UniProtKB/TrEMBL annotation:
GO terms for molecular function: metal ion binding. Pfam families: DUF3347, HMA. This is Mercury transporter. It comes from Flavobacterium kingsejongi. Residues 27-92 form the HMA domain.
Amino acid sequence: MKTIHKILMVLMIFTTVTSCESQIKNAKTATVKIYGNCGMCKKTIEKAANEKGIAQADWNVDSKMLTLTYDSQKTTPEAVTKKIAYAGYDSDAFRAPDAAYAKLPECCQYERPVQTKTVAATALLEAKTVTPAQEKGVGNVYAAYFNLKEALVQSNGVTAAAKGTTLVTAIKGVAMEGMKPEQHAVWMKALKTIQEDAVHIAGTKDIEHQRERFVSLSKAMYPVFKAFKSGGTVYYQNCPMFNDGKGATWVSRESTVKNPYYGAQMLSCGSTVETIQ
Ligand SMILES: [Cu+2]
């Protein structure tokens, strides 16, 4: 009698524990690498993956690994990874649609992985307008510029300096071979200014000084954005107040104004002056 009692107790505990851990039947676990940046990405990725009773996901910001527990009779890791791609996040198997990626908040616009076989067709299409080498090089400059802009929006001088350093490296990494002559001319004209501004931004944590330099940097970057495809629509925006009413511009990935010159103080001050396709 005593033994039966013990067994029953153990059984009960065991059932409780398992039902707490997961209510997923036929549970299997898989890990998939999903590209992303931050805590906000984590929320979006997990929201896209989770389905009550069918899939439960946990994405690790540092390792970029998604641990997926799923009902093996109802779904597959491939299906879940595809859903995540539709939410804007690449994996090695599925590349997110560019439109979905472009909709992500700026902080979430992670560096996209080198394209895999599944997207070879897209890569070839893009190669007609821009050769891959220069797209990669200038693309890194764009990414660093947007990250820097975001740090200024957040009025974070320390992050802005770090992003400035990334920008310096990205500028150095641009390969000029393969540029069309007119593109090469634009790049050469902008190079000295953007390099100098980036170095200054990287070398200080003083946000006011960084913003002053960002005025010049953005002005010099504008023709570059016009000459080299950025892989999506960008917006040339203007804040008429900054610099004692002289105004200052910047380029943004999103049409919504998030002012890098004032941050939270006057976040939505400004307007789009040109949409660059
Ligand atoms: Cu993010």
